[in-house]
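Q: Could you fold this chain for me?
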Amino acid sequence: MTVRIAIAQCAPALGAFKRNVAMHEEWIGRAQSARARLVVFPELSLTGYYLKDLAGDIACAADDERLGPIADASRRIDVCAGFVERAPDARLHIAQGYWSGGRLVHVHRKVYLPTYGIFDDGRYFGPGERFDVFESAIGPSGLAICEDLWHVSVPYTYAATGATVVLSPASSPGRGVAEGGDLGTAESCRLMDRFYAQYLTLYVLFANRVGHEDGIAFWGGSEVVAPDGTVVARAPEFEEHLLVAEIDPDLVARERDRNPLIRDERPDLVQSHLARRTGLVRRPDVAVERS
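A: Sure. Below is the predicted structure, expressed as structure tokens.
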């Protein structure tokens, strides 16, 4: 049985938390009218992306009452949305929450904070330290916020620990021109989404924003890619759009039967090699000098 999901390819207003909450309620209503079980919003959808010194002013704890309308809306449809989290240790994080049944059931803190080119994440935010699989409306899932997905270890870790879906909310600016005239960022993201989906045999839901901030244009192009590499649905570029798609959880099992790469994977071997490389364990073939 398929599950209908929606991606809200929207344009948040920079620093306008209340306005963005109201915007979320509108998009959630549209997704509910489309009979979706889940609606996924882009990275920092409740705050805007290029916050810089505004980050501290707009941050909130994961249980802050300002997030109450999102929790209330999740009684009707699961909601995945982005905000700036102020952690108990007072550090700020780029966070993505997952609300279901009227409560927050999972929070992922962006681990890889790009601080190069036009990106400044590392100047204003602290990195997350976990990649946890949680149960979503479409099966065991992992969250990879924008730059997280560009690190191959992240979707691999999720697949190796039981995820059948990777949700990737993003605030990806449009940059460069690829051979053939396509947007360079779009070509790279689409290649990455399809590769991960097909070779890790899982669904990839890429939820990218649109709009402008600080002279930067966000390109959209949100998409859903199936575990056989098929693009199930794709949103247009540079315009707001509610992307609706059908997810077939059973397709993951069928593809993993046909293409058993995850079954044959050796995470224990990978872990042991990485431990040796970083000096966490002593190689058995290296003698220990005795005094």
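A (continued): The chain has nine helices and 14 strands.
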